[in-house]
Amino acid sequence: MDIALNSPVQAKAASRPAQRPRAPKRRVPMVVKLAYRNLFHDRLSFMVTIVGIVFSVVLVAIQCGIYLGSEKKIAAILDQAPADLWIVPLGTKSYDDPSPLSGRERHMALSVPGVASAEDMVVSFARWRKPEGGTTTVLLIGSEPISDAPLPWNIEEGSRKALEAPNTVAIDKSYFPDLGITAVNDNAEINGVNVEIAATTKRIRSFTTLPFVFTNIEEARRLTGTLQNQATYERIKLAPGADLETVRAEITKRLPDAEVLTQNEFRKRSQGYWLFQTGAGAALIAGAVLGLIVGIVIVAQTLYSSTKDHINEFATLRALGAGAGYIVKVILLQAVLSGLIGFGLGFLLSLGVISAAQDTKLTIVMTPELAVSLFAITIGMCIFAAISAIVKVVRIDPAVVFSR
């Protein structure tokens, strides 16, 4: 008996670990199966739906991205050279709507308690003559080299220090063809004065398509004929602990022919002028709305056709006891699945377009907030488009099954 118990076969069997019971397979809910099969049953209709959603996502993403990019371009100079307060000529509409101040603003501002510094900035339209002939208009920007936020930024070739030399300027590489320039150290003329390209920048573009040309403030005054004590804007920095509104009120009192704006006010005024007073922003918003309408129409038509093609099957489900709510879930799941697939493809395509446009004059911005909003809009659009199909289902009479 002991020999039998200790035999190799039985010892091996006894040493085997007990098999774990298999976990039960998770079953996919029937409502999900029905939605999936209805969606992929007619692949041609499914492809049309996805193309419509992708078109809508890309159009809305690009239009909204251009809008955000336009906001960024309009405020680019202000964002890179911020100030607590800006003294601007009375009636200034935007940063790139320059006119000269009287010339006494800096000293008046420095005499106000609470003002730590006042920095001149010259902005003016100028006539650019290309090396090979022909002229164009540029926006010349002169700032002080000792500034705590000197311009320009994003320098790719050359240096900011090189702009301290006479007759030197910096331009963005994207404007080379417009200005007839091919490389650093090329020469051109501004208002009849010969200048040399001492530095180039990357992705600094204006909303108005006028090229930005940067130089030091003394050179800007000389090239534009501005008086030595004059400026276009005055950047004011406050001393620690100074009350902004108190200082602002005092400067306004001393300079009745100028406006004193906060950083945010000047920024919003510039953006509001170009995006809404000129109608550019309304055109971008209209394009985004058009994309939504196209997407809703295509998805609604496809879901309605799918419901109509399966009307007898839905009637059979009703006759078997399925409630209207159950069938509505099927249709909504179809819409959500379409939205998820369409958004994924459309978003990837949008990122590709945005990446391709980075080094062009078209600035398209994609932010996390825009991506989340775009996802919510896409799913909401598909659910809204499902209403026509849902109305058709709710009106199904189960007796249709027995009349066939």
Describe the structure.
- This protein is an alpha+beta fold.
- The protein has 2 domains: 30-72 and 279-403, no CATH class; 103-256, no CATH class.
- Helices cover 50% and strands 17% of the residues.
- The protein has a 6-stranded mixed beta barrel with strand order 2-3-8-5-7-6.
- A hairpin with a 2-residue loop joins strand 6 and strand 7 (193-201).
- Helix 4 runs antiparallel to helix 11 (280-309).
How many beta-strand elements?
A: 10
Helix content: 40-55%
**What is the residue-mean pLDDT, rounded to a whole number?**
81
- Overall geometry comes to elongated
What's the layout of helices and strands?
Layout: H1 2-5, H2 8-15, H3 30-41, H4 43-74, H5 76-80, E1 85-89, H6 105-110, E2 115-129, E3 135-143, E4 155-158, E5 168-172, H7 176-179, E6 187-190, E7 193-201, E8 212-216, H8 217-224, E9 233-238, H9 244-254, E10 258-262, H10 263-277, H11 280-309, H12 311-319, H13 324-356, H14 368-385, H15 387-394
Parallel strand pairs: 3-8, 5-7
Antiparallel strand pairs: 1-9, 1-10, 2-3, 2-6, 2-9, 4-7, 5-8, 6-7
Helix pairs in contact: 3-13, 4-10, 4-11, 4-13, 4-14, 11-14, 11-15, 13-14, 13-15
Please summarize what this structure is.
By secondary structure, the protein is α+β, with helices and mostly antiparallel strands. It folds into two domains: 30-72 and 279-403, no CATH class; 103-256, no CATH class.
